[in-house]
Each structure stands twice: as C-alpha cells, then as structure tokens.
Amino acid sequence: MSLTARSFLSTMIWLALYGQAMAEESKVTQDSAEPLTIPTQTCLAPEYRCLQRNSGDNDLNAPITITSDRAEAIANEKAIYQGDVVVKQGNRTLKANTATLRQPENIVTAKGDVYYHDGEIAVTGKTLETNLDNEDTTLQDAHYKMMCVPGRGEAKRVFKNGTTFYEMDDGTYTTCPDNDDSWRFSAGKIEKQDDDIFADLYHARFEVLDTPILYLPYLRVPVEDGRLTGFLYPSITWNDTDGVELKTPFYWNIHPQADMLITPTYMSNRGLFMSFEPRYLTQFGRGGMVLEYMGNDSLYPEYDKSWGFNWRHTGIKDHWLYDINYSKVSDYSYFNRYTDSRVGSREENTLLQTGQVSYRDTNWDSTLTVRSFQPLSPNTSVYKLLPQLAATYYQPNIGYGFDFHMPAQLSKFDTDDTTKPNAVRFNIEPTIVLPYNLPWLSASAEGKVFYTYYDQSNIEGITNTDGKKLEKTVSRAVPMARLHAMVTLERNSTFFETPYTQTLEPQVQYLYIKDVDQSGIYNPVDYAGGGYDTARLQTDYYGLFRANQFSSVDYINPANQFTVGAATRFFDDGYKERLNLAFGQIYYLNRFDREQDTALNYSAWAIESELNVGDKVFVRGSLEYDSNLSNLQFGNATAEYRDGGFFAQTSYRYVSKNYISSAVGFSNLDLITEDGISQLGFVTGFPLTERMSFSGQYFHDLTQDLMLENQVGITYRSACWVIGLSYNEYLLARGNINDEAKYDNNISLSFSLLGLGANAGFGYSTASGNALGYRNPFGLKN
After folding, report:
1. 562 has which bridge partners?
2. In this structure, which of 75, 128, 208, 328 has its CB flanked by the most CB atoms within 10 Å?
3. What pairing do the DSSP bridges indicate for beta strands 211-222 and 235-239?
4. Contacts 24+ apart (CB under 8 A), 695-700
5. 406 and 517, same domain (yes or no)
6. Statement: the pTM of the whole predicted model exceeds 0.70
7. Structural domain containing residue 163
8. Measured between alpha carbons, how far is 642 from 613 in angstroms, rounded to an integer?
9. Do residues 390 and 357 touch, judged by C-beta distance below 8 A?
10. Comparing 462-471, 600-609, 664-673, which segment has the lowest mean pLDDT?
11. CB burial string 655-694: b at 16+ within 10 A, e below
C-alpha cells in the first residue's frame, strides 16, 4: 500500500533536473510515427530489485529517455513537454499529457492522465505536483494497484511528506481484483510510515458490496509481510461444551529477537481463558513458551485455578546441541477440559519433561539426557531418566575394510510406582562391520557383543512368569553375528504396450544371537509390563531384518535364523515408480515360544505394496499373516481416487487382540477392546461450483460398532475472501468399553479476508482439528 514509493518521486526529480538539458540536446522525439508502448503491468521480481540495490546498479543510475509530441524550454524559467509525454528510466515509466518544471520554485507538475509504473506499483491520477527542495508530493484523484502483492484502491488526494510519511484523504484499500467490490476498507484518512508494514486508518469503515457493515474510529491493517505490535483478527466458533467462543489475539513485537502472542479467549459457558506465547532468538538458539491460565471455570467449578506451562528450546553452537521440552499442568484432567491447549508433548498418557545436551566431534558423539513425565491419570507409571549419558565412538577403515563403532550408555531409571523396581544400567556394544558393495550387490558381515550391567532396587516381591525373583545386580554378555546381502536385478519390458523397467531385489540375512538367561532383569518378556525403556517393536517387511525385535536392551531376543525377502518395483519411462511389492519371512533354526509352548519353524509373513495408476488411483497396504496360528495379526489398506479438485479416500486398519497383547502387554486388555481394532474410514472433498467446495469424513469402529468421528463442511472461496461452514461430531475419550459412548459436536462459521498478511483470518481453517483425517496414501519417493 506504499502508494507513492520513493522510486515514483525519483523519476519526477530526474525529469526536473535533466529534462531541460535533454530538450536542448534534441533527445525529444516529435510527432513520432511509432505507437506509444506502455509496459505490461507485471511484478518485477523482488530478488532482482534487491540485487539492483546491493550492486548500486539501480534505476537512478540508468539513462532517461523522454518522448513527447512537442517540447519547449526557457532557461532558468521552465521546461514544458506536451502531448503523450513518456519518461522511461530503467524499469520506471511515467506517462502524462503534459509535464512542466518551474524555476526557481523547483516544482514539477504533471497533468492529464498521469500514469506511473515501476514494477512494484502502478498509479494513475489527474495531476501530480512535487517540490524538489523538500520532496513533498501531492497526487490528485489517484488510483493505484500493487504489482507484487494483492492490493489496489483509490484516494481523493495522496500526499507524501519528504521520504518518511504517506497520507491519503478519502482512501480505500482492498485485495480484490479489478471490477470486484466484494469488500474494501475505506477511511477519511490513511497514513503509513515508509518503514512500517501497517497502515493506520482513521474513521475506518469495512464495506461489503459497497455497504458499510463495521465502523471503527481507528484501525491498523497489515499491508506488507513483517511484524508489528497490534491486534490480530479475531475468531468466533461455537460448540456444545464451551458455547460461543471469541478469541482476540494481540501480537507484541518486543524486540527484533523477541515477541509474544497474547490471546484472551472468552467462552460463554465457562469464562475467560488466557494464553501467553513468548518467543526469543539468542546466540544459543531459539525457543518459546506457552502459558495458559483460567481462574474460574463455570463449567468445572471444582477446579479453582487451572494452568498449563511449556518451554521449548533448541540450539546449535560449534560442536554443541541443546534441546529442552518441559511441560507441566495443574491437574490430571487439564487436557480433557481444554482440548485446544497448546501445552507440551503427550506420550502414553503423560506430559513430557526432557532436556538434552549433545557434543559431536569427528569420531565420537555424546548426549546427556534428563527425562521426566507428569502423569495425566492416577494409574499412569512411566520410568524417568535421571539422567542418561550416551556416547558412541566411530572408527571407519580400521584395516582390511573393517569399520568399528562402540555405543555406550549409563542410565538411571526411577519411578514413583512402588510395585516396580528402580535401576542403574550400563550398556556397551562394541561392533565391527565388514561392508562389501557393488553396483548390483550390497552385503555386510557384522559382529557385536551386548554387555549390560544392572543395579536394581525395590525388587522385593517381584517375580517373573516362571516364579523367579529379580536379582539386585545382574551382568549379561550377549554375542551377536549377522550376515546380510541384497541383490538388485533389472530388466526392461512392456505391459499392455507400455514400456516399463522392473527391478527384483531379493535379500537374505542370517542372524545369530546367543540365548542367555535374562530372567533376573526386569524386561518386557519375563515381567508383565516390564522393561525400563524397552517394548516390542511392530513387525513389518523391513522390521524382519532387524537384529533386535525390541526398542532397547532390557531384553535381547535370542536368534538362530534366516530371514528371506524380496521386493519388486516397476518404473515407467520417466523413471517414476508405479508399483512395488515386498514380502518376507523368518525361518527359525532354533526357537521356542513360551506362550504357545510349541516349537516354531517360521514367523508370520509380512507383505507390503503400493500402486500408482496414472497419478489418479493410489493404493497402499500392508499385513502380517501368522501361518502358525492361521490368522491375520495386523493389516491396513488405503485407496484413493484423485482427479483435479476431487478426491475420495477410504481406509481400513485391523490389529488382532493377540498381537496387541504380545506387543503391549496390557493386563486389563478385555476392558479396552473385545476383539482387537477394526476401523473403517472415508474422507472426500470435491468442488460443487467453480468457487464452492465440499469436504467430509466419517470413521467407524467395527469392533465396538460405534462412530468415531463425523465431519462435513462447505467452503466458498473467491479471489479475495473465503467463508467456511462446518459441523463436527466426535467421540470423547472412553476409559473402557463398558463406559457409555459420549460425543461432542461443534458448528463453526469462519470468514477470512485473503491477502492481508499471514494472520488475516477470522478463524478460518481448512484442517479438521481432530486426530483423524486425511492421510497421504502414497509414500514412494520419486
């Protein structure tokens, strides 16, 4: 909205200073038969303008060319150009019927259909007058249009005070295109400092279709990208729980390296909820906080004061890396009452409180970690790391092609649950690897020893599944050997007369891990819910080739097995992957399953596949089928059709109850699910008209036969504004399957003006705002 940019005045100044000399030097073309060419109204690239400024090669140094029908110059009095006057200098063009320089007043006047363009703004008006001594400039009956950002308007008078201040009388501003009067701001006076990203509107009116609907004595409107203290646009929503919700965010630009967002939220059914979000940037990194507070909640009067706090910091300096994420809330049910809270990261019904300091060098790295949790339910028990020191030494090419690395950890685990042990654990894993690679072959041989020492406390009365007790001090050495090789084969062929390239990637692995007695250690196999930081990992195709099927070292699974698998991929003639299929299985040479009390010869099959047909049909799926038990362990599938603005996606996921039990080990699993997880979902979106679109989603739990979420919405979008109406109904959290299903729902009417900076929406959002929703069905990297 910088209506009379400095470049506009500069052209007029150059016209005044050099116009007379140019006339005397006969650089005026009179009665030219060539048609006048006015530049196309397009944006001059910002990076090009920046390059000009930095190099000094700007338009002020460019030569001026003046074209007119007639010219007259009188020394020390005036120079007059008449008839289709066109002044060009670099990227700037000025056109007028007449242009006059008066001396000694040093005043330049352009009259009659004045037009100016410089690659950033185009302005038309009746007259322009500028004083060369103080650079005061006035433009009458002006119409302007921004070239690089949306924005246009008009004013009865535009005045520029020197080089620092702009003022308009009876001015307007809108981001709508020409001949679109959907909305605009009108004001008796509009002012803008030259280095300000906001414009000040006095006696401002917000008009829709030329009809005033809002009056404010004073208003600040963002017209450029940047940061400035002031109110952002409010949002209004409604739902069953909170009632009418009004948010009025305020942005405080404290310092170039610090700011804060203050958001009062009034809920008609509950009261006032305050949120403070300061941010900072220092030489040690960047960070921010979230502070939330509600004094008196009318809906939950039993909670006198509710608050939440989060501090995030991350930074890199020289060899050091810092990362902090600390959160705390006033009580267990805080997030149930304030579902839109922005406090912290939640994991396994806890609130994360962690800090890390890392040091990295050429051949080694180290990390000191402190991790604690705030439980979000009375029965939650998670181990804290107070602290953990981890380090890894790397030494490639130690001789004869071998690489060596040695990770080590010293960890102290603590819990508030008196039925679980505490421990200090030391683990070290010297590892040697011999890689061998060819264009068509990737192979490696690896040898490792897991050595772990435990000092366990609070172990009285804790026994494993065989009735053995935990040991206070335990040391364990587990050797491992692994051989792995993968071959990549390729061929060219055709399919229905379409050329393609197919690859076949078979791979095989032999893994040996010695079977060592680990019953004296609190681990996820021998103890219900056991493991200080260890849990069973999900098995998929790529997981079949892991050495350890657990996330950490509290249990090292014994192995004497071969893993075989293969993947095939199909590429079109543009080398875009159109189809892949991967499958694999583990063959056990020696394994005994404690739960089934039978010897197992092979694992479940793991299968994965992806399909892309013409960039319109996408299919992705994976499953694990256990032929030992003759049942499906888990599976998921997603199919989508996409064409232009239309898409429809359906998804399904299944996890058997046995698989959940083996992977998670819940003691009360019957209260959580009757027969595992079986969920079906559908998401769609499509245009109803050129400007109106529909979106919807529905998710259903087939096992429990209940709806998880239902959402529909209609959005109307024009070139300069958008409005959305949506309805959302979703299942609230249930403690167990015997609880009655309770739902919450909300209706949201949101409106946004487009083109007014980054925070110009009146609550408009295209996201669902819930955990479920659209997920990309296609993960191939092309």
Report:
1. 510, 587
2. 128
3. unpaired
4. 695/726, 697/768, 697/772, 697/773, 697/774, 699/772
5. yes
6. yes
7. 6-226
8. 10
9. no
10. 664-673
11. bbbebbeebebeeeeeeebeebbbbebebbbeeeeeeebe
